[in-house]
Amino acid sequence: MKDIHSKRVDYIKYNSSRKPEFAIKTEILTEKKGEKFVLKEGITKEANAHIESLPEKRKLMEAFFSDRNVSVLEEVQFHRAYESSDSLSYIAYPFLKGKSISEILGDLITDGKAPVKEITEALVLLLGREEWIQPANYDLLFENVLMVQDKAMLIDCEWVFPEGVERVFLEYRILHYWYESYKYKLKYRDEESFFRLFSVGKTELLSAEKRKENFKKKVHGEGEESNIWAYRSQRFSPENFQKQKGSDFEKGERSIARLKRGDDGQRRCSEKRKRSTSSNPSACRKSGKSDWHS
Fold it and tell me: I need a labelling partner for 27 at 20 to 30 A (CA). Which of 54, 83, 285, 288 fits?
C-alpha cells in the first residue's frame, strides 16, 4: 500500500487535551477508488510509543476473545518511526460499516425501559463470566463493537492493560457510557436507579466513578477532557465519533464567538470610558457584562 497520507481526508479528530505521550489524532481517509481507512497518528513524537503499542494490544484482545464469537479489527498498515528522527509513528485500519451493539440495544428500549436481558447477554459476550478480566480493555464499550456480517467486531484497543482489572469496573464503564447515550429515551430517575437493574449498588458505583476520574487524570492530567474536531465532509465515523460533531465542535464555535464579542465589548467599554462622565461610572461595566454573556 502507498503512503496512507496521500489519501483524501474526510474527517479529523484531535485528542490534543491529553498528555503529550497520549496525544493523537484520528483521521478517516478515502482513496481514489472510494475505499476508506482509519488512521491513528501521534500529534507529536512523544506519542509514538503509544501508537506503536497498538498492534500488541490487538493481539492481546484476539487471545482474550479466542473462545467467543468476537473478532478484533486488524491494522492494514503500520509505520514505526526511527527514534533518532522527528517523524511520527502511525497505524491504519480498514473503515468498517456496521451497526454497533450500542445502537442495537438502544433500538430495544421500550416504554423507557432498558432491555436488561439483552444487555446482560451482551456483557457476557464481551467480558465472559470471570470476576477478574485480564487483559482489561477500557475501550471495550458497546459503541466500539460493530456487528459486521452477523459477527461482532471490536474496533478500538487503545487502552488495553495486560495486568487486568475487576470485572465490576469494566461493567461500570460499559453501562455508564451506554446510559449516557440513551438516557434521553430511558425513564429512570437517575443513573443509580439504572445501575440497580444490574445489581450495582451506590457504594460500587461511587468507587467506579472515582476510578474513572483517576484514569482521566492519568490520560489528560489535571485539565478537562476535550477534543478539537475538524470536518471536511459528511459524517463517516462510527457511533462514538458521530455524537461529538453536534456538541464539542459547535460548543467550540460558540465559545470563540463569545470571546470575540467579549473583545468587542472591552473595546466599546474603553471607548465609552473615555467619553463618559464621572457621574455615570456604571454604564461601561453594564455594557461589558452584557456583551460577554449574550
Answer: 83
d(CA 51, CA 166): 26
Written as nine digits, the cell of 205 is: 458505583
The whole-angstrom separation of Cα 31 and Cα 9 is: 9
* pLDDT tens digit sequence for 90-126: 999 999 999 999 999 999 999 999 999 999 999 999 9
Stated length of the chain: 294
110 DSSP β-pair partners: 113
Give the list of residues 6+ apart from residue 39 with CB closer than 8 angstroms, or none.
4, 5, 26, 27, 28, 29, 90, 91, 92
**Residue 249, C-alpha cell as written in the block:** 465542535
pTM for this prediction:
0.76
Are residues 69 and 46 in contact, defined by beta-carbon separation less than 8 angstroms?
A: no
pLDDT digit string, tens, across residues 54-91: 999 999 999 999 999 999 999 999 999 988 788 999 99
Q: Whole-angstrom distance between the N-terminal and C-terminal Cα of the chain?
A: 52
DSSP state of 256: H
Checking DSSP bridges between strand 70-72 and strand 151-154, what pairing results, if any? parallel
Contacting residues for 257 by C-beta, under 8 A, at least 6 apart: none
Summary count for the chain: helices (H), strands (E): 10, 14
